[in-house]
Amino acid sequence: MNKPTNRLRTMFRVGFVVYTMALLTATHWPGLAIKSSFSRMDLVIHAGVLFWWTVLLFTTQWVATGGCGCFKRRLVWTGVAGFVYSVFDELTQPMFGRVADKYDVMADWFGVLVACGVIALWVKLSRRQ
Fold this sequence. Notes:
By secondary structure, this protein is mostly helical. The protein contains four helices and no strands.
């Protein structure tokens, strides 16, 4: 199950926890705004941030590993976790003087879907060789 000798997995797990804490801090910081010439640069950032959150979560092997080691099940549940996290993150922002925006959630979900697609492609290509 959880081998203490797997340093790479431990690094991914620590990185995921630190990344999630930084993400929660940034998304709930009152009055934090991103200035850009692009009108909705925040949507690009949302997609990118959730892309990496999903990739890191997948690499931790915390989601749906079970006994079978089924890649598809693990990938699907990682995506579901990303969807749930993004909704939680967005709906809790008004408690900190921020605004919950459906377009932010949609950008988050896009990032999660792209991450799942990239992971699936990566695994498919790596299994060929």
